[in-house]
Amino acid sequence: MKSFFRAVTAPLLASTLIAGVLPLSPGRAQVQESESPRIAQNIPSPDQVVECELLIVGGGLAGTATAYESLLNGHTVCMTELTDWVGGQISSQGTTALDESREQRNRLFYSRGYKELRDRVEKMYGELNPGQCWVSASCFMPASANQILMDMLAEAARKGGGELKWFPNTVPKLVELNADGTHIESVVAIQHSPAPGTPPINSDFLSAIFEDIYSFEDSARFSKTILKFVPAGIVLEGVQTQVPSRVDWFVVEATETGEMIVLAGVPYELGLDPRSPFNPSSPVLSRDPYCTQGFTYTFAMERTAEPQTFDVPDFYATYEPYYSWELQRNSLKTPEDYFDFVFTYRRLWNAKPRSEQNNVFGVPRMGVGDISMQNWTWGNDYRPGTEFDNLILTEGQLRAAGQLEPGGWLGGLRVDTLRRGEENAIGFFYWLTTGTTDSQIDSAFKAPDPYNRYLKGLDSPMNTAHGLSKFPYIREARRIIGRPSYGYEQGFMISEIDFSWNDFGSEFYQTTLDSSTYATMRRHLAGLSTVETLIPGADPNQFHIRGRSRIYPDSVGIAQYAIDFHPCMAEHPPEKPGNIERPGVRQAHGQAYPAQIPLRAMIPQRVDNMLVASKSIAASYSAAAAYRVHSFEWSVGAAAAHTIDFALRNGVLPYELVDDLPNQEPLLDALRLELESSGNPVMFPDTSIFNEDWNQWKPWGG
User: Fold this and answer.
1) Residue whose C-alpha is closest to residue 191's, from 391, 75, 50
2) CA of 275: how far to CAs of 57, 191, 285, 497, 628, in Å?
3) pLDDT in tens, 130-162
4) At CA 193, angle to CA 192 and CA 197, rounded to 5?
5) Which of these, 350, 325, 328, 329, lies nearest to 339 by C-alpha position?
6) SS3 letters for 433-486?
7) Distances from the Cα of 565 to the Cαs of 262, 279, 497, 569, 586, in angstroms?
8) What is the pTM of this model?
9) What are phi and psi of 223, to 5 degrees?
10) Residue 311: C-alpha distances to residues 6, 13, 330, 342, 427 (Å)
11) For residue range 601-645, what is the model confidence (pLDDT) as tens digits?
12) Per-residue pLDDT tens for 647-663?
């Protein structure tokens, strides 16, 4: 048998700051200005000028949801995507195991488009969980997600009378703003296609082509088409007044890492927030922009009847000290139990369901023909966290690399870290099938299991020649700082205490926080008892702590998932023998109340015609750890679409819907009513300042 590893790793081996701030009440301290490569001179003339009512940059779940609702509303929608699939998490990133909260799933309390997605999965397979995985109620193939979503977009366009202009294999390159920097006038992007005589798309490791696809120039590998997106003329039937030119179109940030935030030059944050009354679990006192959540190249493997043989990857010894089953579990007794535990965790296809052979999680044990997707913390997660290896480059690193120069943008990621993430993922498959060591628990539980085939090729589940996902699963991105508003004088931000179920009266917080910080934290958690906390000399430990999330008057969507961390590693490189997770990051990890998506978290500073509909909303690192999963992305995308539709129809800008809060905003109320009426909820059932009975809503069991 030809060695897969020798063939696949040869080209892989050959390819070779925003200020930290302390929130005020509960806003942010002074924020460093962000540079931007937003106006370039002497750039190549565009090959094509494309008109849009809204441009969505990024075709992940948030971008797809924005497009879906906008098409139903009859708009001309342009959507770009780095890969050739829509869906992000559930397609190009391979994580087709839906992360959902238990009670929200039981009640099917989701945005209408997300419910339709789930219904279509069930219709396609005849069941919602064809993989019979145990991590989720639904595990299925990535290609199915792309097909379902493209069908949904086509039907939405037919039903609503909208038009979708779809640009796969396309990346943003340049944003042109008006003279005062408040309005995006055009966006330049680059679409790539294989050069004559070269292999098709998805033949290359991402790290080998990443910077090339951001270059204007044709290369030996790719031919480039330069696109310029501009506003389309707007005709609104039945509207007597002229729509102001300042509301001519909108741009939606829906990329995986917040590229448009940098290109538009708006303030943002990255990495760990400083410890404060609003993010009291943070392990740092000043911002650490290098420690973000780990990213994961997923892959698929098939259970075989006959043992497979593989040569050791050349780089395997580098990463082998990292891999582990993670924790010793009393219910798992043998190496086969552990392998079955991980294999069925995110199994995407169960060839022969056998209920009589269920494992400890109540799903059929692995069998011949089953296909499993791997997304494992101490496996193919790659978790850099220092200035020498961080994936998402900071403002200072971008400046030093010339990516903030006009036309200098190359995607804003460290290519070498992408490459190491690819190697780490391939090495994990070898460890699963052949490894005998375990970095975290007794190696007695690890034994070779060669009855597995790594699935690669353009007809494989990941649709890539190398078998890895087209793009890594990104858990944390650049995050905007919202505009100053009442109570958020230095910029709006969703914080940990806004929705965490944590015990903020525990010994950790009483001993770790200084007395002033601890009292302020408890005061902001008091809810209806806030007035009592203002009595001089009051004991903070006697302050009532509300049993619900903060309720936002501008909520335009819903989100619930536990605060879930895959922390960066403490030292460089992540795979260093004996390395540990960054201490303290998991302090915020745990249950979270049903929460809301405030419109203020989607509105960047300065730029009036851009909305954020992705993981880059204004949220602290701990809040972002919950606001990152599938149903959230759909809800925030739906909110962006309806906000844009409302703004275009009424000749207003999004910030004008919230700029007078906490006073009543009639237009905001009208928008929220439209969202609810369209089947896109803006709050969970029974949400009110008086209801603190949420025990049944714990996202994880218990």
Assistant:
1) 50
2) 33, 42, 5, 12, 21
3) 999 999 999 999 999 999 999 999 999 999 999
4) 140
5) 325
6) HHCCCCCCCCHHHCCCCCCEEECCECCCCCCECCCECCCCECCCCCEECECCEC
7) 25, 15, 16, 12, 6
8) 0.93
9) -95, 140
10) 7, 16, 33, 23, 11
11) 999 999 999 999 999 999 999 999 999 999 999 999 999 999 999
12) 999 999 999 999 999 99
Round to whole Å and give the CA distance between 85 and 270.
27
* d(C-alpha 297, C-alpha 247), whole Å: 40
Q: Which amino acid is at 27?
A: G
| Amino acid identity for residue 4 in this structure | F
Give the pLDDT confidence of 93-128 residue by residue, as tens digits: 999 999 999 999 999 999 999 999 999 999 999 999
Please name the amino acid found at residue 374: Q
DSSP H or E run through 230: strand 222-231
Confidence grade of residue 43 (pLDDT, cut at 50, 70, 90): confident
In contact, 545 and 526? CB cutoff 8 Å: yes
What CA–CA distance (Å, rounded) separates 322 from 320? 5
DSSP sequence for 248-271? S-EEEE--SS-HHHHHHT--EE-S
Alpha carbons 305 and 320: distance in angstroms, whole number: 26
What is the Cα–Cα distance from 520 to 534, expressed in whole angstroms? Answer: 10
What region, left, alpha or beta, does residue 241 occupy, with left being phi > 0 and alpha being psi -120 to 50 degrees? beta
408-465 pLDDT, tens per residue? 999 999 999 999 999 999 999 999 999 999 999 999 999 999 999 999 999 999 999 9
289 DSSP assignment: T
Question: What is the spatial distance between Cα 115 and Cα 630, in angstroms, rounded to a whole number?
Answer: 12
**For the range 567-570, what are the long-range contacts, defined as Cβ-Cβ under 8 Å and sequence gap of 24 or more?**
567/291, 567/293, 567/294, 567/383, 567/385, 568/290, 568/291, 568/292, 568/293, 568/294, 568/383, 568/384, 568/385, 569/383, 569/384, 569/385, 570/385
Q: What percent of the chain has pLDDT over 90?
A: 87
Total residue count of the chain as it appears in this document: 702
- CA 171 to CA 187: how far, in whole Å? 10
